Every structure is written in C-alpha cells, then in structure tokens.
Amino acid sequence: MDNFVLRCGLHADFTELTACVGGELDRHEGSAVHRRYFYITLLREPVARYLSEYRHVKRGATWKGSRHWCQGRTASAAEVPPCYTGESWRGVTLEEFAACPWNLANNRQTRMLADLALVGCYNGTLRHRTSDTERVLLASAKRNLAAMAYFGLTEFQKISQYVFEETFNLRFAVPFTQHNATVSGATLAALSPSQIAHIRRLNSLDLELYEFAKHLMFKRFEALKKRDSDFEFRWRHLGEVAPKVGVTEFDWDSNLEDATTERSRGK
Fold it and tell me: Which Pfam families match (predicted)?
C-alpha cells in the first residue's frame, strides 16, 4: 500500500495510530468510510527488550523519522530532547544509554500502548514524570491492551500462534519459531546484578505491564483451549495447513465476540 503504515510515522504508538489511521485511509481510498479497526501487538520481556534496543542503537540505529504525534501536533525538542549529539549514538555504552533520563527506551511498551493525552502528551511522560502520571499511563496501557483483538508474547511463540489462529479463524502455513538464545540474552548474561537491577528500575512500568499481559494471555489461551474439541491435534500440528483447506471463511463478528473478550458479566 505504498508504505501506507509510514504515513502515521515511524514506529507509531497507540496514541498516534488511533488519531491517524482513519484519516489516512480516507485519503488513500478517496472517501470517508466508517470502519472497524482491530489492533494487535506483540510484547517482549522488558529487560531483554531494553537490551535489544540498546544494541540496536549502539549499532547506529535512530528513530529520527518518528513524529511523536499527540493531540494534533508533534512533540517539541524540549519535550523529547535527544540523548546524544551528532547523527547517531553509535558506540554508546550501556551506562551512557541508561543514564539519559529521557531515553525513550525506558518503559517503551507502556508508553506506546497508553493514551498519552491523559498525561499531557510527551510533556507529561518524559520531562515531568510523577508517580501519578506513571500510574495513569500504566492503567491506560493495560486497558488498551485488554481491549485489543489480539496480542502475543515473544517468549511464548506457540501459545501466541494458537491464540491468533483461534481468535481470527486463520491458519499459518509455518509454525512460529521460539528463539531462546538471543543476542540480548547473551548481553544479559554478561551484566552484573546491579546493572540488571538498574535496568529493571528504569522499566518498572513495563515489567508490571508484562506480568499483566502474561496473565491475560494465558487466561485467553485456556478459554480457547477449553472450547476446542480438537485441541490436542491442533496443538501438535500448528503451522501445518491441510491440503484440502482453501480460502478461510471468516466473519469478524462471530469470531471476536467470544470467550477471549474480557467482560464484566455482572462483576
């Protein structure tokens, strides 16, 4: 679609996507249409994710194309100040990376899933953080995650695949691959206990969000498993599409209004 996703910004977060996608689709298709949107995402164990981003930045990666759009405008340089001078942060040490107080790597998953307008956009997320704004961000991220049609966890590839397939009544032709040995894992093994503790403090919101996500995904998995009379066969043959199977017949409404949806049910 002509790099459509980049029209909402490089690595656009939930705040940016929800404000951007409808208008961009209208422009792309040439008319205003009422649509239903189904957001999905993947989360990763926060310490491993942080170290992976650190190594990515150390190799010279930047997010200069990110707009950090919120409430109709991009964040100013004062609201999202850079952690480095020059073209990139290539060669940065972990100590330098962790020392930047407004590093966007800190609690990235919580920030990207939350409604930033609730805390004054980037003015309230980086330069003027308080325990109250952090609590609001975390609650918002949890709420938005629970409302998503689907989310998965990097550390649980097989369960994530099963939940996706059962939620959307779609089948992957190959199984998801679980890579337990990662570069960030090797980096983690070389860190001291104090370094790990510091990274955990920097990502305390993400750690709580991840535990919430893990509990919720396993709850959804068990609900789907319970109603699947062919679970044992399906579980053994994930990533295998039977030759006789053609185009999947799919109805969003009948597949999403199911036990995977979190409902109050009078509670």
Answer: Sulfotransfer_2
Residues of the chain by 3-state class (helix, strand, coil), percent to 5: 50, 5, 45
Other C-beta atoms lying within 10 Å of the C-beta of residue 169: 14
Q: For residues 113 and 92, is the Cβ–Cβ distance under 8 A?
A: no
Place of tokens 């960030």: 184
Q: Which of 11, 28, 68, 198 is catalytic?
A: 11
Residue 58: in which H helix or E strand, if any?
helix 46-58
Q: What is the pLDDT of residues 63-119, one digit of tens each?
A: 888 989 999 999 999 999 999 999 999 999 999 999 999 999 999 999 999 999 999
In the chain the beta strands, taken as DSSP E runs, fall at 40-43, 69-70, 73-74, 150-153
Assigned token pair, 206: 């993400």
Concerning whether 56 is annotated as a catalytic residue, the answer is no
